[in-house]
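Annotators were shown the component list below and the corresponding predicted structure, then asked to write short factual statements about the assembly.
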Amino acid sequence: MRKQLCDALVARAGNPGMVFLTGDLGFMALEALQSALGDRFVNAGVAEQNMISVAAAMARQGLDVWAYSIAPFCYARPFEQIRNDIAFHRLPVRLVGNGGGYGYGVMGPTHHAIEDYGVLLTLPNMRVYAPVFDEDVAAVIDKAGKDTQATYIRLGRGEPPQGYAVPDYAAWRPLLSGGGAPVIAVGPLAGTYIKAIQNLPAARRPNLWALSELPLTLNPPPAALIEQMLASGRIYVAEEHVAQGSLASELAIYLLERGMSAKLIHLHARAHHYARYGSQAYLRAQSGLDPQSLLNAIGAAERL
Amino acid sequence: MKSSLDAKRLSIIRSRLIRMHFESGIGHIGGNLSSIDVLALLFNERMGQDDLFVLSKGHSAGALYVSLWSAGKLTDEDLQTFHRDGTLLAGHPPANGIREILFATGSLGHGLSLAAGTALALRFKGSSGHTYCLTSDGEWQEGSTWEGLIFAAHHRLTNLTVLIDHNGLQGFGHTSEIASMFPLFERLKSFDIDMHVIPGHDLDAIRAALDAPTDRLKCIVLQTVKGKGVSFMENRMEWHYLPLQEADYRQALKELGGL
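Structure shown to annotators:
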């Protein structure tokens, strides 16, 4: 999604108040933005703590501030700066993390971001965007750019099957419908499931929902999703994120507070426990997040 | 029109600081007394409408509040709420509510980067405003402070002045004995910055350093005394933490000339 990110930000670069900070990343991807912004494209160097505090201060002065790095260095290294300098002051800094989840798979565990939105959503005044498709990025940038609070944009790689007509961006989107229980997938992971389940018989085909915005308090689940869950008595949540601080845990609280319940089947990242590393697809499979794992989960649930 | 600061006014300001801390039963007095000269000077005679300040050493909030009081930005009633339930005047600066306080600080190592971002934003906006940042010497042990220095020096932020309250003492002893950066200013000099090392309780020396023209980032090391002005506090590490007892309070006021 980096190309789409660059295009969307270049389209905003005419705003003289826009500033883009990078932690020395974006080679072969963000040069067009650098040209468009001139000295308002600031390479802050390999110093993420400083970059985030600088971003906070610029937002405090009313500038339109975007801070970019690969995902783990965007939220984990400078967490205190995000907490103290951005969140406590309700500043609308746009944090952009590339390669959320296992996006930098074989690069190793330091480059994985599988607890990012859970960590950030413990902070006040924070909204998370996880675009599903490349086509979503422009809408997400536009929406985040209008936010009056801090945002974290978790970029990945859109993976719809060939020929799939990508629906317009929305926080919640039904991607497939059928007579099965609902499946909610966060971000690009949703796109990986389409091919595997679209040819299932309609009666068994799950209702696949893609979620792109958190927390739920700002984007409650649609009524149709709740109806599907109550009718089937179960709900599946798949996310490239550890269980702690996950959508599933947030959804469970959301439902129980409203007196609603269903069997929850959670497919999630399995932390940094592997002896060996591989691609994003490899690590998804190791975590039970790949399409086959979803099919197995659906089948297992149906035998219960 | 701002009024100039002199020794007599400074004694009154110090005494008000002592009273505020005594009435609230709160410590952190030593580092407040070491830094209050420059803070009072900035707010009373230096800073204009467009100038901004970041207190990186947030534990000297008391000196900041009393300096703002001395410049008419806070009232006596405001100071009486210091450290009490429902106050805006917390033990470290608040996130919102006082116009002159841009950022909540108290976790060390944030202020210089916040000030650098502020200064660069002012440059982008075409503002003539100047940003001042007061750090402690101990917080140069934080790696993020050096990140901020690298950034500010690289961008030649001539609209930023970095002030270091170099009293040589920190939470559990002498800075040079805990994680030595001695001599700190010699290490700072190796960056491409405009360095001034001055006696930190000499108002004229502070004025001269602030006024010195430069085409680089300016850094002023204020060689100060922790607990300055109160004999039994001067250069005593324990006054980083201790609150004042009644007898201490009376003695301190007597030495400072009272309110």
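Statements collected:
1. Chain A touches chain B through 28 residues (CB under 8 Å).
2. Chain A has a mean pLDDT of 95.
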